Amino acid sequence: MSRKIYLDNAATTKVRKEVIDEMRNYFDEMYGNPSSAIYELGRRSKEAIENARTTVAKFINADEKELYFTAGGTESDNWAIKGVAFANKEKGNHIITTKIEHHAVLHTCEYLEKFGFETTYLDVDKYGMINLEQLKNSIRPETILISVMYANNEIGTIQPIEQIGEIAKEHGIIFHTDAVQALGGVRIDVKKQHIDLMSMSAHKVGGPKGIGAMYIRKGVKIDNFIHGGGQERGKRAGTEGVQNIVGFGKAVELAGKNFDEHVEKLTAVRNKLIEEIKANIPDVVLNGHPTMRLPNNVNFSYKYVEGESILLLLDMEGISASSGSACTSGSLDPSHVLLATGLDHGTAHGSIRFTISEETTEEDIDFVIETMKNIIVKLRAISPLNK
Ligand SMILES: *Cc1c(COP(=O)(O)O)cnc(C)c1O
C-alpha cells in the first residue's frame, strides 16, 4: 500500500516546487536584513519583500500600500478584530460576526467580551449562508465591526461578500473578511466588494506555513497588534520572514496564472466526487451550498457512522481527509459549523471533508469512491445506530 491520496487541502497544501526554489535563495545567498538597506544585501531582501507585496496586492485589486505581512491567517484575524475594537471603542462596543467563523475569529470575539465588547453571532441556513436581513437588523448605533468569513473552511460555503460590504459601507461600519480559504479559489476584488480588512494565509494556497497578510483599506482606524520596530510601515513589528514572504508571493503568482482554468478543473473533479458519492452511497447529506461553494470542497455526512472511524480506515488506504469533529484539537464535540447548519449531533459526527487540489486525478476519485463504499458498508454493518 504505497498509494497516497491527500484530500485535506483545506488544512494545508503542499508547498509548490517553484515556491521552494524561489525561497531557497533567501536562506543562503540573500540573507540580509531588509531593514539594513544601506548595503546591497539588505536592499535585495527589501526589494524581494516589495515584489511579493505587489504580487499579492494586485491579485486582490488592492494598492500595495494597503497590504501588510503577518505570521498567518490567525494573526490577521486577531489583528483585524482586536485592532478595530480597541481603536474604535469610543465609537461603540458592538461586533457582528457569524456562528460559523474559524476559531481565530470566534475566540478573539469571546476574548473581547471580557473587555466590555458585545458580539452578535449571525445564524446560517442549512447551506451555511447568512441572512442579509438578519445582518441589517443586528446593526446598532454602537456597531463598529462586521466580520464575516469569505468562504467556510469546513463546508466551503461562499458568502455574499459584495452585498455584506455594501451594507457595512451604508452604515459606516468597518467590514472584515477572513478570506484564508477563498484566496486562490475565488476571484477577490477588495474595491468592488467594499472590503475594509481581509485576512490571508500562504499555506492554504501552495505557500509556506507561518506567513500571511492583511489587507487594510487606506483610512481604516485600527490599532497595531504586534508592537516593536518600524517594519511594515510601522504597523506590524518584527524582522520580516523574507523567505516566507517571497514564498507567499510566488504561490500567489502561480495561483493567478491560469486562474479560470484552474478553478474550472477543480470544479469538474469536485462535482464528479459529489455526484459519485450520492450515486454510490445511500443515506448521505451534502453539507454546504450546492453551487455557492469552494471549487475544492466536498463535505458529506454519512448517517449511522462515526467520522473518526471513517478517517482511520481511509488512512489505512493512504487517503488523508478530515472529519467534522477532530479538527478541534481532539475534542469530541461535533463541529460548530455543522451544528449551526442545523444538523443533529449524530449526523454531524458522521461527516467527512475531502478538499481536493490541482493534483487530484479522476483515478484518485475512483479509488476514493471504491474505498468509501466499502468502509461505509463495513461500519454500518456493526453500527448500533443503524436500525
Ligand atoms: C487556516 C485558516 C485560518 C488560520 O490560518 P493560519 O495561517 O493557519 O493561522 C483562519 N481562517 C480560516 C478560514 C482558515 O481556513
Distance between the termini: 34 Å
Number of domains: 2
Architecture (CATH level 2) name of the largest domain: 3-Layer(aba) Sandwich
Shape: globular
According to CATH, what is the class of the largest domain? Answer: Alpha Beta
How would you describe the overall organization of this protein?
This protein has 387 residues and is α/β, with parallel strands linked by helices. It is built from twelve helices and 13 strands. Strand 5, helix 6 and strand 6 form a beta-alpha-beta unit. Helix 1 runs antiparallel to helix 7, helix 2 (40-59) runs parallel beside helix 7 and helix 8 (259-280) runs parallel beside helix 12. Pyridoxal-5'-phosphate (PLP) is lined by residues 72-74, 77, 102, 104, 149, 153, 178, 180-181, 201, 203-204, 212. Pyridoxal-5'-phosphate is lined by residues 72-74, 77, 102, 104, 149, 153, 178, 180-181, 201, 203-204, 212.
Secondary structure: elements and pairs:
Elements: E1 5-6, H1 17-28, H2 40-59, E2 67-70, H3 73-87, E3 94-98, H4 103-113, E4 118-122, H5 132-138, E5 143-147, H6 161-170, E6 174-178, E7 197-201, E8 212-216, H7 242-256, H8 259-280, E9 284-286, E10 297-302, H9 307-316, E11 319-320, E12 322-323, H10 336-340, H11 345-349, E13 351-355, H12 362-382
Parallel strand pairs: 1-11, 3-4, 3-5, 5-6, 6-7
Antiparallel strand pairs: 2-8, 7-8, 9-10, 10-13, 12-13
Helix pairs in contact: 1-7, 2-7, 3-4, 8-12, 9-12
